[in-house]
């Protein structure tokens, strides 16, 4: 039992470390690079397979020592690798200018792969050592991973990420101690005692052992703190983000994005809230006199307030409260404001309540903690205005940093949902940063058009308007057709602020591109082309991807097109690089690197296994079996995490609930697979060979049924509370994950029977396949959608079942 | 390897030679040679981008300034080998020295005469101020980060630029005592354009604002104040790129 517990602990620590690294790298760098670095570092799992395949005899001869040593090395390298990686001067922003950055990047992920390598080595050794009960080892491996995922998220509520880092080590030391205890010699018991004590000591000393974070100097927080007199006045952390509040009394923040050049007012005093050292939202000094917020009337997102009289407003993404202030200034009759991060709301409401004029406690304002899309789907209220403004920071947006992150707010379905919640004559208003050449503005327009058409609107062009300041663009979608009076108001709003109108029903060419002149009136022409009969052709010819995003392909920020790459690269010297949406190519680069590394890691051990006389006729099939399984498992898991994010409408809950459920129920499936295969084997013949086939059959039926049924189930249950939605989600995941937990231990047990020296090789292949799978799933989802990712997973599972039909070893 | 690649690797080898064996005077010659190569590159690039920036070539004054200002003096020592590559370089404090091509285009777009007085908000290393100082009569520059401002001021003084005045502090209010300005360059990122800066711009004057993030200038914004003090802005892509492929 002790070694099983050791596997549980090491697996929990490894998964917790993975999630923690995502947080830490997201703070010191940017999230999209964090994903890439971690993907590649996870190849440490594949490398451990190679290593244990090559050294299996020695490792097995000294099982206890090897396991304990690997576990201790994991404990040391988990914090040490991160500290070392921080010393490498990797600057992702320079990657296209400076080829040295690639070397730094490789160094970063090689260093960060070490802890994963050691953790996976422990598990691989255990698989080899415990050949008769592979399904039990896998059970504890998956249970550990499930608890690790949940545990680290709970821990992140209590401690900040750098403090959590030191807590990764004790479970590793405890795992080593358990294996030592299992050996039952006096020396090993002593060693166990020392390891336990060391683990406890580290766990107790944690609050004092905070690792310093070296945050990139190109992030907003760093720049804000370089300003004389600026200081951090509040700091807090949760799994949603690391929040710092900065006061800059000498040189104030004055954050009013895209303020009209005709406005001469200076914004009031502001405090800056930074999330993960970058994403910025100001808290503005407010003494209760709406006139103080007059400066906010100088931005493009103020337009809909001029078209409505004392509207009821829904604000999605309230942040520090600027949009609530705008609504108060325009005497909104009621304001529902939704903010995902409760800590941000608490700061504005309590810590800085007086500074902010208690706007979140105003009798006209109701605050809701939650995610925008989920709120709209769950509410029965209707509004005159749904307002979404600049949810991401300009720099992240400009750098294309979100290209690979899913957003369920800017999809056709989300727009339809919002429109359903509008009263007759009400507006959906979305403001984004203006980019030249246009990307977001035209994609928003195309998305709104598709949503209107899908909702059965006859003449969608009569319900849309698009205006821009020199830095922002605002799209209005009306529940009804624009009236001449509204168009007149819009004209005068824009004229007095020197904003341009790119589209309203009946616009003429003379009215466009007057104040913030672009070479060609591309946005206007684009909008007209999208409304015309050649929409598809126009989107095709456009050099950025402006196809509307959908819930199945929720990548609004993905603008990249392959055919533009050579042109942009050739323009490097002439300032052309910013035209590149480079997150997507980086994802492809990640895949190429992972493929190359995986090939080496998979093929290399074969030579050694052959020369050690371990050739087996079924090795190719072993290879394919575990490759297919590794790919399929993560395809399925990633696709369903996405489906449930939409349902649970909170990325954090969704990821932790879905991921943990998948792992724990798959673990239980693994445990049951032992009995299941025993039962079938006793029947012999085809029954014993169909063990995987039956599991795969159930997986296929369930997953396809879910794809068909979940949307309507979600629709009916969307308004339920989280406490009901979470168990419901788990009930859906449980049977699917249960059967997904079977094929791996069934296959590995068969390898253990016929060709045991191939166990670590199979484990390594599974590790490599998981890395490839995560990147491939993202690429497939971008192009084909998550439903197809599930489809691919089913096919891969079926292929694995076919391979299993014949003996593996 | 393309022409640019050859130029760059050639430039690197020259630099290695310079550092290894050459005397200071020879070093200066070598740098001048590298600079000339860079200017040629920029000249060729501008030609290809002429439609976008509305001019077929940069004025001689700007090219001469680029040819004269020793960019290697404005970058950290360890980055000197790359000083004459057409790329932005980090200068510490989260700041960068812009891509020379962008510096040249921005300076040219200001259309400032030799007698002009120019305000720069965001001194950084002082390179842009030096290029401006070669082109106009007087440059005033404000830097928010004290260390950078101090370093830039002493660097510019050491290099003999007597017509540049640097001060550290808040750029929002411009430099009222020296206003109005014929041209203003706002290289420090801002969520909005401070109204006092527009006020301090002479009628007929121009303001240039690069929009983007560190290492990436997305586009340039040109603010023009006509003789009647009316404001108009132009969004300029510094590069020849048409977002539509072929067709109509």
How are the SSEs ordered, and which strands pair?
The complex is a heterodimer of chains A (809) and B (248).
Chain A: H1 2-28, H2 31-41, H3 43-54, H4 56-61, H5 63-87, H6 100-129, H7 134-158, H8 161-166, H9 169-183, H10 186-205, H11 220-226, E1 231-238, E2 241-247, E3 270-275, E4 279-284, H12 303-307, E5 312-316, H13 322-329, E6 334-339, H14 342-351, E7 365-369, H15 372-378, E8 383-389, H16 394-398, H17 412-420, E9 422-433, H18 440-454, E10 464-468, E11 472-478, H19 484-497, E12 500-503, E13 516-518, H20 522-531, H21 535-541, H22 565-570, H23 583-611, H24 619-648, H25 651-683, H26 685-689, H27 691-717, H28 722-740, H29 743-754, H30 759-783, H31 786-805
Parallel strand pairs in A: 5-6, 5-8, 6-7, 8-9
Antiparallel strand pairs in A: 1-2, 2-3, 3-4, 9-11, 10-11, 10-12
Chain B: H1 3-21, H2 24-53, H3 60-68, E1 89-92, E2 95-97, H4 100-109, E3 117-121, H5 127-135, E4 138-143, H6 146-158, E5 164-168, E6 181-186, H7 195-199, E7 201-213, E8 216-225, E9 231-236
Parallel strand pairs in B: 3-4, 3-6, 4-5, 6-7
Antiparallel strand pairs in B: 1-2, 7-8, 8-9
Question: Please, could you describe this protein's structure?
Answer:
The complex is a heterodimer of chains A (809) and B (248). With 809 residues, chain A is of the alpha/beta class. Chain A is built from 31 helices and 13 strands. In chain A, strands 7-6-5-8-9-11-10-12 form an eight-stranded mixed sheet, sandwiched between helices. Chain A starts with a helix and ends with a helix. Chain B has one domain (3-236): Vaccinia Virus protein VP39 (Rossmann fold). Chain B has seven helices and nine strands; from the N terminus they run H-H-H-E-E-H-E-H-E-H-E-E-H-E-E-E. In chain B, helix 2 runs antiparallel to helix 3, helix 2 (24-53) packs across helix 4 (100-109) and helix 3 (60-68) crosses helix 5. Chain B is globular. Chains A and B meet through helix 11, helix 16, strand 13 and helix 21 of A and helix 2, helix 4, helix 7, strand 7 and strand 8 of B.
């Amino acid at each position: 039992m002790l070694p099983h517990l050791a596997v549980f602990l090491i697996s929990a620590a490894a998964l917790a470390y993975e999630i923690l690294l995502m947080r830490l790298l997201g703070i010191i760098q940017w999230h999209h690079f964090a994903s890439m670095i971690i993907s590649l570092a996870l190849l440490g799992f594949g490398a451990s397979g190679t290593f244990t395949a090559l050294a299996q005899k020695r490792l097995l001869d000294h099982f206890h020592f090897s396991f304990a040593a690997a576990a201790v090395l994991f404990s040391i390298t988990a914090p040490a690798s991160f500290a070392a990686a921080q010393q490498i001067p990797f600057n992702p922003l320079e990657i296209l200018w400076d080829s040295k950055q690639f070397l730094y990047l490789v160094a970063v992920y090689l260093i960060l792969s070490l802890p994963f390598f050691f953790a996976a080595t422990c598990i691989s050794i255990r698989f080899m050592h415990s050949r008769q009960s592979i399904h039990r080892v896998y059970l504890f491996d998956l249970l550990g991973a499930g608890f690790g995922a949940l545990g680290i998220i709970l821990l992140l509520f209590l401690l900040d990420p750098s403090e959590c880092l030191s807590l990764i080590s004790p479970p590793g030391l405890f795992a080593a101690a358990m294996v030592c205890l299992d050996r039952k010699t006096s020396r090993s018991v002593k060693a166990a005692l020392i390891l336990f004590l060391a683990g406890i000591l580290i766990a107790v000393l944690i609050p004092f052992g905070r690792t310093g974070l070296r945050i990139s100097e190109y992030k907003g927080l760093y720049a804000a703190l370089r300003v004389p007199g600026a200081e951090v006045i509040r700091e807090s952390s949760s799994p949603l983000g690391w929040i710092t509040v900065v006061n800059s009394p000498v040189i104030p923040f004055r954050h009013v994005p895209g303020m009209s050049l005709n406005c001469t007012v200076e914004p009031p005093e502001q405090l800056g809230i930074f999330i993960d050292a970058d994403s910025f939202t100001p808290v503005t000094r407010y003494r209760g006199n709406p006139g103080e917020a007059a400066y906010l009337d100088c931005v493009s997102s103020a337009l809909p307030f001029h078209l409505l009289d004392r509207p009821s407003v829904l604000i999605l993404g309230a942040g520090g409260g600027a949009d609530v202030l705008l609504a108060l200034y325009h005497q909104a009759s009621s304001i529902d404001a939704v903010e995902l991060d409760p800590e941000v709301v608490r700061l504005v409401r309590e810590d800085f309540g007086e500074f902010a004029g208690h706007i979140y406690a105003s009798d006209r304002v109701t605050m809701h903690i939650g995610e925008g899309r989920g709120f709209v789907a769950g509410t029965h209220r209707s509004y005159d205005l749904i307002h979404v403004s600049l949810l991401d920071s300009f720099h992240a947006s400009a750098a294309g940093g979100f290209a690979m992150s899913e957003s369920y707010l800017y999809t056709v379905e989300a727009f339809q949902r919002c429109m359903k919640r509008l009263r007759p004559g009400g507006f959906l208003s979305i403001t984004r940063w203006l980019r030249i050449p246009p990307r977001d503005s035209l994609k928003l327009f195309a998305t709104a058009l598709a949503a209107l058409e899908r909702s059965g609107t006859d003449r969608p062009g009569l319900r849309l308007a698009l205006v821009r300041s020199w830095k922002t663009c605002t799209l209005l979608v009306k529940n009804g057709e624009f009236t001449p009076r509204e168009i007149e108001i819009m004209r005068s709003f824009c004229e007095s602020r020197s904003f341009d109108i790119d589209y309203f029903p009946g616009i003429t060419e003379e009215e466009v591109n007057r104040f913030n002149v672009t070479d060609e009136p591309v946005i206007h022409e684009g909008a007209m082309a999208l409304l015309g009969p050649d929409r598809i052709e126009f989107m095709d010819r456009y050099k950025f991807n402006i196809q509307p995003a959908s819930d199945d392909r929720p990548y609004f920020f993905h603008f990249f097109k392959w055919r533009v790459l050579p042109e942009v690269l050739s323009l490097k010297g002439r300032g052309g690089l910013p035209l590149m949406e480079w997150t997507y190519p980086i994802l492809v680069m990640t895949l190429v690197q992972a493929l190359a590394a995986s090939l080496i890691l998979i093929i290399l051990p074969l030579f050694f296994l052959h020369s050690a006389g371990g050739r087996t006729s079924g090795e190719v099939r072993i290879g394919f079996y575990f490759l297919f399984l590794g790919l399929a498992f993560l395809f399925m898991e990633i696709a369903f995490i996405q489906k449930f994010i939409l349902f649970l409408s909170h990325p954090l809950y969704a990821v932790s609930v879905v991921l943990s459920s998948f792992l724990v129920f798959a673990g239980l499936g693994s445990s049951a697979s032992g009995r299941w295969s025993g039962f079938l084997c006793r029947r012999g013949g085809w029954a014993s060979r169909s063990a995987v086939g039956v599991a795969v059959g159930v997986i296929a039926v369930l997953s396809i049924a879910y794809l068909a049924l979940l949307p309507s189930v979600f629709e009916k249950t969307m308004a339920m509370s989280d406490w009901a939605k979470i168990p419901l989600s788990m009930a859906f995941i449980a049977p699917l994950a249960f059967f997904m937990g079977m094929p791996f231990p069934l296959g590995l047990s068969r390898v253990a029977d016929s060709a045991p020296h191939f166990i670590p090789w199979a484990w390594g292949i599974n590790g490599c396949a998981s890395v490839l799978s995560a990147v491939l799933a993202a690429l497939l989802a971008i192009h084909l959608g998550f439903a197809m990712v599930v489809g691919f997973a089913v096919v891969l599972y079926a292929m694995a079942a076919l391979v299993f039909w014949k003996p593996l070893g | 390897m393309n022409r640019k690649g050859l130029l760059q690797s050639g430039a690197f080898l020259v630099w290695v030679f310079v550092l290894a064996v050459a005397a200071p005077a020879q070093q200066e010659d070598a740098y001048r040679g590298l600079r000339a190569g860079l200017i040629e590159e920029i000249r060729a690039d501008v030609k290809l981008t002429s439609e976008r920036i509305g001019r077929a070539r940069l004025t001689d004054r700007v090219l001469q300034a680029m040819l004269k200002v020793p960019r290697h003096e404005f970058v950290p020592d360890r980055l000197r080998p790359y000083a004459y590559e057409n790329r932005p370089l980090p200068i510490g404090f989260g700041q960068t020295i812009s891509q020379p091509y962008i510096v040249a285009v921005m300076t040219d777009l200001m259309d400032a005469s030799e007698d002009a007085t120019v305000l720069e908000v965001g001194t950084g290393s002082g390179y842009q101020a030096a290029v401006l100082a070669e082109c106009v009569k007087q440059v005033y520059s404000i830097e928010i980060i004290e260390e950078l401002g101090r370093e830039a001021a002493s660097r510019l003084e050491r290099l003999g630029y007597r017509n540049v005045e640097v001060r550290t502090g808040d750029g929002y209010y411009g430099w009222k005592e020296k206003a109005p300005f014929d041209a203003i360059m706002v290289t420090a990122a801002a969520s909005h354009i401070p109204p006092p800066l527009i006020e301090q711009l002479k009628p007929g004057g121009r303001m240039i604002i690069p929009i983007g993030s560190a290492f990436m200038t997305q586009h340039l914004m040109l603010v023009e104040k006509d003789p009647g003090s009316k404001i108009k802005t132009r969004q300029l892509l510094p590069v020849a790129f048409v977002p539509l492929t072929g067709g109509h």
